What we know:
By secondary structure, this protein is mainly α.
Amino acid sequence: MDAPDTNVSAWTRTAGVFRQGVRPLVIVLLVVAAVVAAHVALDLDAQAARLRSFVQNQGAVAPPVFIALTAVGIMLFVPAPIAIGIGSVAFGQLGGALYSIGGITAGAGLAFLLGRYVLRDLGTRLQGSRLPILRALASQRGPLPVIALRFAFPFAPGLDYAVGATGISLPHFLEGTLVGLIPRTFALSFFFDILTKSDWLASVASVPALLCVLLMPLIRVAGIVLLVRLLARYNARRAEGVIP
């Protein structure tokens, strides 16, 4: 495994986060815009009620089917906020968040295994600019590197496949993915639930909704800071000869 160039600072290696940092926000804003347009053109409150009624009529089979479809969607690069939004409407804030986390984690785990054993070149092509970061993080044990990646690159296409091609273990990947998904998924589930209510316009301006929106960039900043610290630790250990 080639080591990252130590002449490049940790801040430089994470500069790509800022260049591509608007992508997750754009995805969320597009979904929100679609919901707003649906409110204007359709009776979205009634449509959401029909979806909830349909899901309830399916009984106990609905959650595992949703989790399975979400997992497949993640493997096919369907943006995670879409699944979270559907889950929030169909199962409520709590159920939607929990089932979305289950489906996203399952899909990420399967993509990780495919990236490790079948499609090693796919993740490399999709995440080429981040490979130095991934290789440096792979030398550090535990789930913390994966948590940092989830915070900093929440919906990055191909990231799961690329991490599978590194030395990060599957248990640490799943643990880090699960922990890294929790804050953002619960915030999005709460926000999407608000958007489908009849009084959504007033609810969006409420303090809880604004806090959910504010949480998104804060999570990203936390991921960036954590990545910088991990990469700085990697450089220090490599300079000491601890890491070849």
